[in-house]
What does this fold into?
Amino acid sequence: MSSTSDDGRDRDAEGRARSARPRDGLGRPLPYGADGVERQPEGVVRTPEETVDEAQALLEAGKPFHAHEVFEDAWKSGPEEERALWRGLAQLAVGLTHAARGNLTGGARLLRRGAGAVEEWGAEAGMEQPYGMDLPELAAWARELAGVVERDEVAVDARAWAPRLRGSKA
It folds into this structure.
């Protein structure tokens, strides 16, 4: 629930700034009163398996911005030793978001940063497949998409480019 403060800004129940504007499937704000997609609730604590399942469903629905919020919840609520993993996955989702919105430079940069982050976490943790996710395959997907975005210089279809978190056509 949000309200408007004396300064005209939307605020949540705790008084934090929080835009009540509707959003599209890529998280872009729409005009007040427009039909948007339902927002992803923030601060939800999920098991790692639930996080992967929820994010995968959102990615397949063409909602990488919303998947990023699921990964963000995991990095903020999960164990310290896994935060870099979830942050890297969030970067991959935001990279896809930017690539789909047409921010090609930012999208490619975040895709590569996320690829490096999940690979680094996997190497340091000695785990290439945490929770069934294939980190080397995700990193390869991200680098491939970054190359496509830079080469073609056109926004991509988020649904068509959604990664399989648990590997190829699992």
Remarks:
- The chain has a mean pLDDT of 89.
- Residues 104-125 form the longest helix (22 residues).
- Residues 125 and 136 are 14 Å apart (CA to CA).
